[in-house]
Amino acid sequence: MSLKTPSAAPDVAAGPPGDAGRPRSTYRRLPHIPHGGLLLVLVLVAVFTAVQADAFTSSQNLLNVLRQVSVTAVIAAGLTLLMTAGGMDFSMGSNAAVTLCVAAQLLARGWSTPAVVVVSLVLATLIGLVNGLVVTYTRVAPFVATLASAMLLDGVALLVLDGMSVTIGDKMSALGNDEVAGVPYLTIVALLVLALTGVTMRFTTFGRDAFAMGGNEHVARLSGIDVNGRKLALYALAGVLAGLAGLMLLSRLGAAAPNTAGLQTQLTAVAAVVIGGTSLAGGHGTVTGTVIGVVLLGVVGNALNLLQVNSNYQLVVTGGVLLVAAIVNEFQRKSSPGH
Amino acid sequence: MTSSPTVPDTEKGTAVSPRRTAPAHPAPQALVRVRGVTKSFGGAAALKGVDLDLYPGEIHALMGMNGAGKSTFVHVLSGVHQPDSGTLTLGGHEHTGLTVRRARRLGISSVPQRRELAPGLTVAENVLLGDLPTRYGTVHWKAVREQAGRALSGLGIDIDPDRIAGTLTVAEQTMVEVAREVRRGGRVLILDEPTACLSARDADRVRDLVRTLRDEGVAVVYISHYIDEVMSLADRITVLRDGALVRSAPAAELDAAALVRGMVGRDVVSRRPARPAPRSESGLAVRSLSQGRALRDFSVDVRKGEIVAVLGPAGDGQSRLFDLLSGRQRPDSGEIRVDGRPVPPGRIDASLAGGLRCVTGDRRTLGLVQGLTVDENLMLAGDRFARRRLHRVRHLARRAAPVRDTYGVVALTGNPPVGTLSGGNQQKVLLGKWLETAPVACFLEDPTNGVDVAAMADIHTLVDDLAARGVAVLLASSSPEEVMRLADRVVVVSAGRTVAEHDIDAITRDQLVTTALGGQPQ
Lengths: 339, 522
Ligand SMILES: Nc1ncnc2c1ncn2[C@@H]1O[C@H](COP(=O)(O)OP(=O)(O)OP(=O)(O)O)[C@@H](O)[C@H]1O
Ligand SMILES: [Mg+2]
What we know:
Number of helices of chain A: 14
Pfam families (chain A): BPD_transp_2 (PF02653)
Largest interface: A-B, 44 and 66 residues
Oligomer: heterodimer
Strand content of chain A: under 5%
CATH topology of one domain in chain B: Rossmann fold
Structural class of chain A: mainly alpha
Distance between the termini of chain A: 35 Å
Number of helices of chain B: 17
Largest sheet of chain B: 6 strands, mixed
Radius of gyration of chain A: 22 Å
Keywords (chain A): Cell membrane, Membrane, Transmembrane, Transmembrane helix
Strand content of chain B: 15-25%
Number of strands of chain B: 22
Bound molecules: adenosine-5'-triphosphate, magnesium ion
Strand order of the largest sheet of chain A: 1-4
Subcellular location (chain A): Cell membrane
InterPro entries (chain A): ABC_transp_permease
Largest sheet of chain A: 2 strands, antiparallel
GO molecular function (chain A): transmembrane transporter activity
Distance between the termini of chain B: 30 Å
Structural class of chain B: alpha/beta
CATH class of one domain in chain B: Alpha Beta
């Protein structure tokens, strides 16, 4: 049995797009390059900095930028998936801070590195899971619940350190400072995480469930998706990635000091994800966009340092970049068919 | 619409330009003059040079199949979309495009195909949205309630202005939107399928309202798929097909058969076929289901291969059935059995595992993920049942293709987000999504909501086939025609109670309508 409505056949689709599809202004072309506007901003910033400060293109500096953005990238990757599913986690940076402090203390007490890695990742996962439980089984908005846990965890991190700095000697320093074929280990870890996230979002049912949940949770539930289970998994995943970011940061710094990572780091990651075009309301997000967002923020931060801009202006500029990027994204979304 | 119009073969849908048709109206001055409007999305044309004249005091019906471009056209008119080319002349000025604000200022108001009330606000706030009366710089709530109450009662709409918009039924939402637009006092009122899922009674009220407005001199653009409705209401009818104007003529010069032919390009036949007799075993049994005041002590037994209709005004008990049967909500009491096995109440997974498939009448909020593609929406449930772990676009497209084909889903471009499809095509996607997942029993809520004549016939055939495959089908409907066409038995509900039950052979359509209305407690 085949039921077709003959006259409704979209013969137009095959026809020459010629006259009808002519764009009226150039900005209508932008949507055809994904993240075109954003890439343009990134290139402009990079070129401007390279011209203004020679140090920008030195390999030392570039490696430094790569190491810096790698940590943010790991957090941002988890956040992209979570936000696509309509969730939000403000506590990942603070989770990273707690992990970092606990790991430092344990290492300082002579635990073996593998044991510390396992313990801290488990701890981070549990923290994420608790967030997930609160968000899923109470009706508290993720925004509120995770903001609360961010503050709470920032406090816990301070308690763990007890106001002191804890150094870990040269344990884990290879991860933080070495490189293979000119690429820092940290960056390789970050790229792996990003790639896995990207593949998950595109090619697995788990990832597509995230899109469905973010797009319309009711429909997702009614279609037989275990929405609660998925949410728990996603928050736990955000937790474990936060833990990983904490360990990466520890390996780079070689010490845990008060107020490392925390809410400020998280806000940078959130900004990067939003710049990358992931929807705050859920249902839409790409890892590519997040990568561009992370790199853009990293490069801007670095440029401000190199150009010796007064540190008071740095936040102002970063905020400005966030705003401009968000506006560019919105333009592209509006002018593309099917919003 | 379930009749089978036969058209003499000589009748060809020749394009008659409205410019050459002398307006049969006493006021020859067109209020709005649209010329050669084209609009394409991503290179595919949705409108190809459409001309239209709107006269004051005239109801101008716009007809065409799903995806013909009706909504796109009125979007151009109301400034939502800017045309790629073409002009709109109104108030003596020629415009190449309008913005929503501009259109509003020029007196064009519109009630879109999908209802767009702010769900968190009260009815009163929604009616006065953007124009809240203030006193001393703050909102004057008493006046808000009074003015909204007046706007509603002036149109004979009986809705408490203090209710939250999110709790309104679709019928009530339509009324509130009409009231809002009427209150703003436009010269042109656009109604995009205002009666798409209203009961005969509510639809009558909307139509009366439209006539009143027409008599006051408003130019009404009225989109509808109901041919009888259009024939009885419209003064002038314009038929679109594939984005092009097929015919525009005074209603008196057209008949139902010519209209169908103009829209579809062929005759449409939808007759009750001979279906195999229902089997003896029960497919879906509902025992004394109750929830609050919405549904009281509702029982029905659907045998395998049988179609039982629940007829009631839109928003009555039958709409609550979706929530209860799908497991979204837990009934206060009652029992559901599928295939003889009890289904634990209030659990979506249990309901699905039992083989019960519920197709919502509210496809926007409960049916489809608007941002996902057509293929993904089609396979959303099926792939989850099959416990697929991997998602590959190519494979997905291959699995979705036959479903698209069977259900006649048409998109301008390959595989766009489902939200960009025309309303009727979205409805087909929704049906395809659920009916291809090996159901034991199906609950269908207004399955032909917003679909064109041809698609309606197609969907009726699909439901027939579903029953013929031995699926127990419970059909919630607000249309007596549809019930007569599809059902073996009909249960009439009113105010949450069952008021009558009939075999379809033992009742005529008119008797059915009378029962449905007679059951209304006054
Ligand atoms: N924003 C959009 N992006 C891409 N395609 C679109 C968009 N809006 C409409 N279309 C396409 O344009 C065509 C015309 O759609 P339109 O909504 O005007 O149909 P319609 O006549 O109102 O149909 P229905 O009776 O089903 O509501 C459809 O094929 C639809 O898929
Ligand atoms: Mg439409």
